Amino acid sequence: MTQLEAARKGQITDEMRRVAAAEGIEPERLRATIAEGKAVVPANVHRSRKRPCAIGAGLRTKVNANIGTSGDYADLAAELAKLQAAEAAGTDTVMDLSTGGDLKAIRKAVLERASVPVGTVPIYDVGTRAVRDQGSLAAMKADDILGAVREHAEQGVDFVTVHCGVTREVVQTLLNTRRMCGMVSRGGTFLARWMRQTGQENPLYERFDELLDIAREHDVTLSLGDGMRPGAIEDAFDAPQVHELMVLAELAERARAAGVQVMIEGPGHVPLHQVEAQVRLEKELCKGAPFYVLGPVVTDIAPGYDHITSAIGGALAAAAGADFLCYVTPAEHLGLPDVEQVRQGVIAARIAAHAADIAKGVAGARERDREISLLRRRRDWEGQLAHCIDPELARTLREKVKPSDEETCSMCGELCVFKLADNGSQQE
Question: Which CATH superfamily is domain 42-360 in?
């Protein structure tokens, strides 16, 4: 049985118990949320995870880190170092988006070393082979596309992004719309180009029941990809994006009816004032299905700082109800990130997620802030450094500009408001 089927039968799986303990909630509450289709536990039956997680309503907002090779940089060791850095920084999941080198071997290595759930985008395998080996996306076959999903599932991948909503009708809506940046989803572009070249319908949509059979057999969570996500804030909330979301809502209902766990992927580049409305629309159309957002990036002017632009959007999106934030690194729009940029991306997304959890009233979120505030008031520097989100950086910064008085910081020194207040109390 899938986690969803077990939950509907009233059964609490081992994964549910472990996740509930980590979340600080009752297992029965988690089971009920999964049974409603409002939470998922990505847990392929072929793979064990040291750190399983649940994504959805009433739970801590989760963070994903993307890693993976490219045609220019196909270094497995480098990607495994990024995996280690992402996990050390506290990511909840990773996605292997490799497009360079031996993709199956890379995926195997990531699955063996990752202690968290692992996601992939199977269309990358097929599209990469078609372009590099045969010179055209038209070389892809429908069976190849479904076969790649099965191969990933059999290897143990916990969740897969599948661009089922990029249908011929949706692509026509895009062609009829004047977009500044067109389609920026790589997987969506592969499928749209293939459909135009072959005249066929997207097999991930046309043969969705076969896709469901694969997902159910291996308990792979389907992450319904947003091929029409905006790549510029000028393109946000347009007809292609909404059209695709309506298709995804229909497919999500079919997935849940088949006992398959499902979540919905969202934008993308979105101006700040639209973020909340986009989240609310997804939640309404998709009946509370977990929402997985890339960022969203709220301004297009900051290459090199897009971990910040996305954290701003991510905090607002999660506060409005998004459940899962895909990190964005400083290298976004510029190139493949290095290990340090991966770490920065995870930390930025975790800050956004935590800020949203306070707003949502997630259990334990505000208490964590209260604890560090009390440590700050007491001038307990070791306590603060141990409990902050990035102890390594915080300690480095404090050591770099040491105060003459260890009870204070070098910015305030003898003028520390807390020390002055404490001395005043003693004198009184």
Answer: Radical SAM ThiC family, central domain (3.20.20.540)
